[in-house]
Amino acid sequence: MLPKYPDRVSIAHLPTPVEKMNRLTQHLGGPELYIKRDDQTGLATGGNKTRKLEFLVADALAKGCDHLVTTGAPQSNHCRQTAAAAARFGLGCSLVLRGNPPDIITGNILLDRLLGAHIYWAGERPCPEVVTEVMDELRAMGHKPYAIPLGGSNVMGATGYVLAMQELMNQLQTQNLNIDFIVFASSSGGTQAGIVLGAEIYGFRGRVLGISVDHPAEDLQTQVAALVTATATHLGLGGISLADKVEVNDDYIGEGYAKVGETEREAIQLTAQMEGILLDPVYTGRAMGGLIDLIRWGAFTRGQKVLFWHTGGTAALPAFVDKLLP
Ligand SMILES: *Cc1c(COP(=O)(O)O)cnc(C)c1O
């Protein structure tokens, strides 16, 4: 059975390039490393949320909504891309950010502001509670708000990555490339759910490995597997369970979310200086750090081909200057 895709708006610059990382491969002594450049999706410095927002914004417009509301960490890339997508379609945007405002406005928060988003700081309160309040306020003012969950990780968001997998499979075929492993940062799970489902639908033969940024492997695995099944149902494929294809490694969480350590620092500097490619401190720096560690432990053979899926986030770099150049 073929998937039936819902409407999407066109925001992302697609297809994003697949490139070979020759110098990093040589430096690490194999496996052959490739990179899929979803840091280049084109939406206000890009990232993986752009593909999700193509479906989420289409749904919001179809429902006649005039305002996007979402939530995340202070340096949320998802919130910044949501603010940009809202601007592109003339929608209002309200962001509920975790905790209290920092002393210095920089990185994604600066971009949120420039993109015209309203920012609400949740302080000590749980973000979902504040989101509900903001939604009610907007309705009381006569707006029709559309709530997007954390990371855009619902069936609509994940659908963006099912299609990303179709895009990748076309590129691999054209380049006559057989990838053994796809490795990337996983957090709210929508990216991994989409990739796992897309891998099944479009016949990817290798393995898909999510490096957990913040959640214990078992929790994230359960969450992603459930989202795979729900997304399959959403696309009219029904009854699919791919729990055994959802692989999560939680060895690199370190001190927790957005706590930058030597793993991230080394990965960011090595990738920058070997390839001229910027990673981010919270997600891709951690995932690449994990991949480099796995390579050093001998998890891959020299001849295997590993594709690192760059999910973006470089807009957050200036907010971590003291951790990156200690
Ligand atoms: C959100 C994000 C991720 C994680 O994607 P999920 O779909 O939430 O698992 C990875 N990298 C970057 C840069 C992100 O902003």
Discrete helix count: 11
The count of domains is 2
Overall spatial form = globular
Largest sheet: 6 strands, mixed
Radius of gyration: 19 Å
**What would you call the structural class?**
alpha/beta
Helix content: 40-55%
> Mean pLDDT, nearest integer?
98
Order of helices and strands: EHEHEHEHEHEHEHEHEHHEH
Per the CATH scheme, the topology name of the largest domain is Rossmann fold
How far is the first residue's CA from the last residue's CA? 54 Å
Uncertain segments are: none
Q: What share of residues are in beta strands?
A: 15-25%
Quickly name the level 1 CATH class of the largest domain.
Answer: Alpha Beta
CATH architecture of the largest domain: 3-Layer(aba) Sandwich
What ions, cofactors and ligands are bound?
pyridoxal-5'-phosphate
- According to DSSP, the number of beta strands is 10
Q: In order across it, which strands form the biggest sheet?
A: 1-2-10-7-8-9
Q: Describe it for me?
A:
- The protein is of the alpha/beta class and 326 residues long.
- It has 2 domains: 18-47 and 153-324, Rossmann fold, CATH 3.40.50.1100; 49-151, Rossmann fold (3-Layer(aba) Sandwich).
- It is 42% helix and 15% strand.
- It is built from 11 helices and 10 strands.
- The strands form 2 sheets. It has a 6-stranded mixed β-sheet with strand order 1-2-10-7-8-9, sandwiched between helices. Strands 5-4-3-6 form a 4-stranded parallel β-sheet, with helices on both faces.
- Helix 4 (107-114) links the parallel strand 4 and strand 5.
- Helix 1 crosses helix 9 (262-275), helix 2 (49-62) crosses helix 6 and helix 7 packs across helix 8.
- It is globular and about 60 Å long.
- The N and C termini lie far apart (54 Å).
- The model has no long low-confidence stretch (mean pLDDT 98).
- It binds pyridoxal-5'-phosphate.
- Pyridoxal-5'-phosphate (PLP) binds next to helix 3, strand 7 and helix 7.
